[in-house]
From TrEMBL:
<dbReference type="InterPro" id="IPR058352">
    <property type="entry name" value="DUF8039"/>
</dbReference>
<dbReference type="Pfam" id="PF26133">
    <property type="entry name" value="DUF8039"/>
</dbReference>
<dbReference type="InterPro" id="IPR004252">
    <property type="entry name" value="Probable_transposase_24"/>
</dbReference>
<protein>
    <recommendedName>
        <fullName>DUF8039 domain-containing protein</fullName>
    </recommendedName>
</protein>
<dbReference type="Pfam" id="PF03004">
    <property type="entry name" value="Transposase_24"/>
</dbReference>
<feature type="domain" description="DUF8039">
    <location>
        <begin position="243"/>
        <end position="312"/>
    </location>
</feature>
Length: 325
């Protein structure tokens, strides 16, 4: 493994939080093993020595064992376990998480987007057995029923502070958001939703302007065909400049400017494409994410790519090099 990584500033906070979470999970796993050894009371010293990882020194390991096998730590652990046992609605998406479930759902549903309310509901349904797709328990069934009622209300707000999840559970706590997953904050989601609403409004206005322009051009072509010299005849395709290089083959997943690509709005200048085959692996992504940096990282996933660099003859996308779909 590398001892040093060069990471963009925009990803550092998320990566450090992820490292911290993994570190805490590892310590928790070691602590459970230590308590089992101590509770068993058989050859305790030898078993504790065998559990020692390679990295810590003997002094660090002895201090860790002392803290984790103390009565104070055992009491704290029992308190946390009791609090967890009080959770009335278990999460059922396992390690897949909300983000991966949303990604797979978008692919399966032709680029459509799913709201955080529907994500939360899916995360609290049974995944197996005869009752698959039904709420995990009575408490979840009641919550889902109330959320469905809120969704049906007219003029339902798009704000994260007033959507069905927040109406049922109350405001989100700082640093986490129900139905979204790890590494997301309420302020970021709120800004994203407001931006999406504004973008939809702008796109609606832009579509109306385009319709007017198309109608005007149609009328002008009929009245003054001399104003449009050199137009290609019917059925003739415009080919991309020969200087462009095809970098990948892809399928267009969505052209909806308000759809999401890895929790970011697509925007008016891009299409959402599903990368099938990469021809030039070292191409930097137009819009990097916390998971993907170069084109080769995205095989089998969706990315945002400028539609002016997509050729629909083969069909294709670029950077002044083309990505083909």
């Amino acid at each position: 493994m590398m001892k040093k990584y060069v990471i963009e500033d925009c990803y550092k906070k998320f990566i450090l939080r992820l490292i911290g979470k993994s570190w805490r999970n590892w310590k928790s796993s070691i602590s459970r093993s230590l308590r089992k050894v101590v509770d068993a009371g058989v050859d305790v010293s030898r078993c504790i020595t065998l559990l020692k990882p390679d990295e810590p020194t003997d002094r660090e390991w002895d201090e860790f064992v002392k803290i984790r096998t103390s009565d104070q730590f055992k009491e704290l652990s029992q308190t946390k376990q009791a609090a967890r046992a009080k959770q009335t609605m278990p999460y059922t998406l396992s390690r897949k998480g909300y983000a991966r479930y949303e990604h797979n759902w978008t692919i399966e549903n032709a680029g459509k987007s799913i709201s955080r309310v529907d994500l939360w509901i899916e995360g609290h349904k049974k995944r197996k057995g005869e009752n698959r797709g039904k709420p995990i328990n009575d408490a979840a069934e009641k919550a889902i029923s109330e959320m469905e009622k809120y969704k049906e209300l007219p003029n339902s707000s798009t704000s994260i502070n007033e959507d069905p999840v927040s109406k049922y559970f109350g405001p989100e706590s700082s640093g986490s958001v129900r139905g979204i997953g790890f590494g997301v904050t309420p302020s970021k989601i709120e800004a994203q939703l407001q931006n999406k609403t504004w973008m939809q409004s702008v796109m609606n206005e832009l579509n109306e302007v385009r319709k007017t322009q198309d109608l005007t051009q149609k009328i002008l072509r009929e009245l003054r065909p001399d104003m449009f010299p050199g137009e290609p005849s019917t059925g003739e395709a415009l080919t991309p400049p020969s200087t462009r290089q095809v970098v990948a083959k892809a399928e267009v997943a969505s052209t909806d400017s308000t759809s999401m690509v890895h929790h970011v709005i697509l925007g008016p200048d891009c299409y959402k494409v599903w990368v099938k085959e990469v021809l030039v692996p070292d191409v930097t992504l137009f819009r990097a994410s916390r998971e993907f940096f170069t084109l080769v990282d995205t095989i089998g996933s969706t990315i945002a790519w400028p539609h002016k660099y997509i050729s629909f003859e083969e069909i294709q996308v670029s950077t002044n090099r083309l990505l083909s779909s």
